[in-house]
């Protein structure tokens, strides 16, 4: 029995059995004692009540109408034998023979004789009566049905300190035994029906509870196979509903990651293919040429070198992202001239800018030129930002790089007047593999979607603030705020 349905069904069934066993324990094991104690209490209270009624009549007439009516009412309701004795232990009243009682000596003697072999013949009862004590005893005597058990209760009739007589009530126990026997039969039938119904309900409840779990298991298996479109349709506010929503969210995230992975592989394949093709073509050209001039040869070799550098740059981006995934990145702080760093980047990108007729200019208004950061990483930051600005600028466009002081920080803004970014795309440009123009034909300047994600991680590692502002067809502004607090030349491990 390994599946959860069988386990739940077994648990519910066992629970029903335990409840039925508890009911049997109390109803069968304790019911008899409970009924006997209840009957004892009823008989004792009634005997005290009769004693009180007789005392209120000042004991002059124990056979008053009030006493007779009470004896008839109670004796009929509980099938009890009631005796009222005077102080000499003579029977004054007798139920069920109360309708033929007489106060003359002959009839009284008849009653005494009839009862002499009964209750008043019991030496224990006589001893209690003589001592003037209340008593409750159980007795068994021969009967055509076998031994008949009965409860006998005695209460003295006391007026002050004077004992006027006794009230004795005897009630057979066979009605209780018959009632218990009937209850046992009923309980047996109810137990069998309850067990059958409980088993069926247990199976139904088990199926009800396990159905959403089986859906979740099925969805998880589909997700494991790569089917990220599967969803768990279970609407509830409990833990199972929360688990279903979590599975759905996981499927959505995995679907997104898978789409990004495929796009990344496609982008990388394209980006790697172009430089490799150029390198191969120019290498074969250089190998086979005999009449080319030294200038042409150097130009072709420079193309090979440039494309090799481009390949190396892409590989570094991929390795850098891999290092970020492993939450490990070292920063080496040093003094850097910000303008010199930007001039170097512009010199390296001027060829691409000129091909698009884009002008780049630096507007420096900062009093402070030296920053403390990892030089290679900050080079990569501004290289990616400026390169993006070139790629998204129109022909004959203009890029301004503004440097100025603000709140004890140096703020660098790279502003272009190009295509801009839509409001719906703006929050996602820092995500890995995200490319604003997904449908645009990829050319040699097309990126891999890693650049701005790298910028984000480097700046966060330095604890520098950054942001972007843009409008479609009006241009984009990317800004970076660099703190001026000097750092020692130590290696710092950044937090992701």
TrEMBL record:
GO terms for MF: ATP binding; phosphorelay sensor kinase activity
Membrane topology type: Multi-pass membrane protein
Top EC class of this enzyme: transferase
Catalytic reactions on record: ATP + protein L-histidine = ADP + protein N-phospho-L-histidine
SUPFAM superfamilies: ATPase domain of HSP90 chaperone/DNA topoisomerase II/histidine kinase, HAMP domain-like, Homodimeric domain of signal transducing histidine kinase
One cellular-component annotation, GO: plasma membrane
Stored InterPro entries: HAMP_dom, HATPase_C_sf, HATPase_dom, His_kinase_dom, HisK_dim/P_dom, HisK_dim/P_sf, HssS/ArlS-like, Sig_transdc_His_kin-like_C
Main location: membrane
Residues in HAMP domain copies: 207-259
Gene3D superfamilies on file: 1.10.287.130, 6.10.340.10, Histidine kinase-like ATPase, C-terminal domain
Compartments it resides in: Cell membrane
Protein name as annotated: histidine kinase
Keywords (A to Z) from UniProt: ATP-binding, Cell membrane, Kinase, Membrane, Nucleotide-binding, Phosphoprotein, Transferase, Transmembrane, Transmembrane helix, Two-component regulatory system
Known EC number: 2.7.13.3
Transmembrane segments: 6-31, 187-206
Annotated Histidine kinase domain residues: 267-486
PANTHER family: SENSOR HISTIDINE KINASE CPXA (PTHR45528)
Top-level taxon of origin: Bacteria
